[in-house]
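sorry for the late reply, my laptop died twice this morning and i had to redo everyting from scratch. anyway the thing you sent over, i finally got around to it. pasting the sequence first so we're on the same page, its 279 residues, then the predicted structure underneath. double check i copied it right bc i was rushing
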Amino acid sequence: MHPILSREVLAPDVVRLWVEAPTIARKRRPGQFVIVRISDAGERIPLTIADADPDIGAIALVVQGVGKTTRMLNAMEAGEALLDVVGPLGRPTRIEPKQRVCCIGGGIGAAVVYPLARGFKAADGHVTAIVGARTRALVILEHEIRHVSDRCVVSTDDGTYGRPGLVTDALRALIDAGAAFDEVVAVGPLPMMRAVCEVTRPIGLRTTVSLNPIMVDGTGMCGGCRVTVNGEPKFVCVDGPEFDGHRVDFAELAARLTAFREQEIEAAARYQPAAATAR
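ok and here's the structure:
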């Protein structure tokens, strides 16, 4: 069992949980993730390790309540416990010394970008961050990301905060203004990552994306997280989660993400939080 040490609401339907997991907190590296399970009857879901504190033996998980299980997670309180927290899983981010990198986090993707930006900065890199969201209320981890970046641009689709427009608009503006990067790292909704790749592809700018497909066992055995990269099958849980964005078959991945959409919608519709049931 893994007790929840604290719970903090970051945005509507987005919660940060600090969970006791001493071994993972010591061993985790930027880019890695865990697979969690609430109960014996629950599904296994992958979540990025958004932060870690080896001194207290805890990791931070940022959860967006979309389906049944993530909504159940977000309803849990400090003092309750997760049945399983397995990790660290996946390949760590490739971090080279003194890189000039642009880290782009769209929506919940900011939770992935924060440890990456911190890792690049710790390697004496120059970090530019772009944090994007649909509206001001959905911007998360801005303070943390600013703290580990040389420059941070906030972008909202509706212009209610920061720079108006999409993260791709912000990226184009930086490039047009003469910003030079060795690499762009983009994390967020699939359409956002694909759009970032189409900005960087014509100029040959290396672009890494972090993928989060359907995942079950985390060992590469189930095949649920299969993606096609450069024409070859890869498994995100063991070969990723990060890949060259210019080589990812985004169309295939988008189709695979909808494979269980009907079941997901049905399960979410059946779920009734305890508080709502009590009323």
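The first helix runs from residue 22 to 27.
thats about all i looked at so far, will dig more tmrw
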